[in-house]
Structures
1.
Amino acid sequence: MGAAGGLHLRPARESDRRTLWRIHTRAVEALCVGVYAPHEVSTWVRLLRPEGYLRPDKPRTVLVAERGRRMVGFGQVDARAGELEALYVVPEEVGHGVGSTLLAALESVAWQAGVPLLGLDASLNAEPFYRHHGYVWLHAARRPLTAEVQLACVRMQKRRPATASRLEPATP
Ligand SMILES: CC(C)(COP(=O)(O)OP(=O)(O)OC[C@H]1O[C@@H](n2cnc3c(N)ncnc32)[C@H](O)[C@@H]1OP(=O)(O)O)[C@@H](O)C(=O)NCCC(=O)NCCS
């Protein structure tokens, strides 16, 4: 896959599970603290598990971003459902284009699958990032973690640009 500023994207593999989990945990702990209460962040992180990524019963497109040999972020899309399910960048790489590069590649997967809209539940800290990338605010939402803890988030979506390419079925 493409490279941008020394950044390389590739599909995630099973051996990445532990690193995906570590990136996810670190991003939430470092970047979501200001907008969520400490008990919300700790509950969120406690529920993450390495085996929760790349589940065989939930086929998804998961892309990882590497700078050199180091994994610096990942994102996940359910292209058939038109849902961006995850996008996380290691704290020390924030603001250097990793999230935007991953997002563009995941959007491209969704547009090529033919969905007209891509939706997501943005965490409150990430809402400006998605707005910057053309997503519009639909409504406030809640992501239930446990019976007691529900994370406030924002339901957003982006319409497939008229210029986006779509993979046509192969002609016989
Ligand atoms: C949100 C996140 C994925 C962004 O990734 P990133 O690599 O820092 O973002 P980039 O550097 O690619 O892009 C930042 C661009 O968005 C803009 N932006 C606006 N608000 C922003 C915000 N709150 N956070 C990050 N970027 C923001 C920047 O100005 C920048 O624009 P530019 O490229 O035109 O200068 C990353 O900060 C992250 O992992 N956050 C914690 C986890 C999280 O909340 N993930 C989303 C779950 S829904």
2.
Amino acid sequence: MQRGHLLSSQESRHWTDWVIWMKLLMTLTINLISVMHHSVIPGGPLMFKNLNFGIDLDSRIAMVGPNGIGKSTILKLIAGELQPTSGTVFRSAKVRIAVFSQHHVDGLDLSSNPLLYMMRCFPGVPEQKLRAHLGSFGVTGNLALQPMYTLSGGQKSRVAFAKITFKKPHIILLDEPSNHLDLDAVEALIQGLVLFQGGILMVSHDEHLISGSVDELWVVSQGRVTPFHGSFMDYKKILQSS
Ligand SMILES: Nc1ncnc2c1ncn2[C@@H]1O[C@H](COP(=O)(O)OP(=O)(O)OP(=O)(O)O)[C@@H](O)[C@H]1O
Ligand SMILES: [Mg+2]
């Protein structure tokens, strides 16, 4: 059943139930009473207190805030790379989370080609399926067989993005994904994110990326995460005037 089809009232009720069920199942609720940094130094600084927010399949959020405020820490908490010192980060057991950063683009095996790389990452998956997936991100034809050291930054980002989305994550976390990317590569990333049907939480200060791929802005400041009612430009104006 597809969204947007005219439904009978019974179908409509089933559809609504399904949406609610999916939301309950997939909603990733973060309810941190207090989070101390994972620093092993006893009595390290308390970074966040009373954080309480959720992310679901419809979330398309960019998180902004000054350097060192804890944005990457929040992503790591959500991904399970860090544990809060108190409170809970609840993740539905069914939720698949993927993490994308420049690190993943830099980590590509440049001597390999996109298809071989995907075959190594996902052994046993039919070649045609991997080709089709690469193709959906614009890595088609000969491009899929060229050594990756010959690919542009944008093409490499497409391969990295194809890799992290192959297992169909429900939520993608991106930490400053456009750092060191040229315009072409940022454009490729935006296209990938627009195609992606799931939740997005990214840390970025790239206006083009933010306006092209998300619709909500959260500000991290003084141990809190708050929704910002305005555009990224509005946020920048406030920063400049303060
Ligand atoms: N491995 C670590 N050990 C100890 N302290 C750390 C570690 N990683 C980060 N920190 C500290 O935790 C705080 C938050 O770091 P975090 O990387 O989350 O900030 P950020 O908001 O992502 O900053 P940026 O915008 O510079 O990426 C900073 O004060 C940082 O110095
Ligand atoms: Mg960071």
